[in-house]
Amino acid sequence: MPSKLIYNDQQYTLDADKTLLENLESQAVSVEFHCRDGHCGACRSMLVSGDVTYSSFPMAYLKEGEILLCCSKSEKNITIKSL
Q: Distances from the Cα of 77 to the Cαs of 4, 14, 17, 45, in angstroms?
């Protein structure tokens, strides 16, 4: 069974090879962003459940429980909410 991505209470299919932003874009979900490498913080979201990995840790300031959709990936079910 494929993993799922829940964003703002809507369920989508998760492709572990894509960033969370790419996953949402490929399913026609509009997400605010300005960069794709973790510098600006525009796509900052709250991690409700699950885990993410970063290819390189983002430069934008993150509070506890926040993630950047543009440069994070997940291999398992994940739930996130926009801020």
A: 5, 8, 14, 16
Domain 4-82 has CATH 3.30.565.10: no
pLDDT tens-place string over residues 14-68: 999 999 999 999 999 999 999 999 999 999 999 999 999 998 889 999 999 999 9
| Torsion angle (degrees, nearest 10) of CA 67, 72, 77, 80 | 30
- pLDDT at residue 2 greater than cutoff 90: no
- Taking the C-alpha atoms of residue 45 and residue 41, their distance in angstroms, rounded to an integer, is 9
pTM over 0.70: yes
Domain spans, the chain: 4-82
Please calculate the CA angle 67-69-72 and round it to the nearest 5 degrees. 75
